[in-house]
Specification:
The chain contains no helices and eleven strands. By secondary structure, it is mainly β. Strands 2, 4, 5, 6, 9, 10 and 11 form a seven-stranded mixed sheet that branches. Strands 1-3-8-7 form a four-stranded antiparallel sheet, with no helix packed on it. The chain starts with a strand and ends with a strand.
Length: 118
C-alpha cells in the first residue's frame, strides 16, 4: 500500500481544513487507516482512525467533536475534516495504515503541514 497525503496549509484559529490521503497498490479491506500528527518538539500522536471495511471510527480526545475521518471506497481515499482549528493543532499530519489487529501503524505517507495562527 502506498499513501499520498495532501491538503495542509495555513489557517486562522477557528477555521477549517480538509486533508486527503490517496491509497494505492493493494486492496484495503484488511486495513485500518489513520491520521497521526507530530507537533514541533513533541512526540507523534494518534488523531483519528477508521476501519476500511466497516467505517468504524476512533478519535483522540483532543479532536473529538471537531475532526471527522471518512473513507471513500470508490476513490480509495481517506479524508480528515478538521473544524474549529486552534494553534495547538499545528503539526505535521501523516496518513498511515495498519493491518487490522496490529498494534502499530506500519505504512506511512509523507506528512502534510497544518499551521493554525492565533
Amino acid at each position: 500500500v502506498q499513501l499520498q497525503a495532501s491538503g495542509g496549509g495555513l489557517v486562522q484559529a477557528g477555521g477549517y481544513l480538509r486533508l486527503s490521503c490517496a491509497a494505492s497498490g493493494r486492496t484495503l479491506s484488511r486495513y485500518v487507516m489513520g491520521w497521526l500528527r507530530q507537533a514541533p518538539g513533541k512526540q507523534r500522536e494518534f488523531v483519528a482512525g477508521i476501519t476500511w471495511s466497516e467505517g468504524i471510527t476512533k478519535y483522540a480526545d483532543s479532536v473529538k467533536g471537531r475532526f471527522t475521518v471518512s473513507r471513500d471506497k470508490f476513490k480509495d481515499s481517506v479524508d480528515l475534516q478538521m473544524n474549529s482549528l486552534n494553534p495547538e493543532d499545528t503539526a505535521l499530519y501523516y496518513c498511515a495504515a495498519k493491518v487490522r489487529g496490529a498494534s502499530e501503524y506500519a505504512i506511512w505517507g509523507q506528512g502534510t503541514l497544518v499551521t493554525v495562527s492565533s
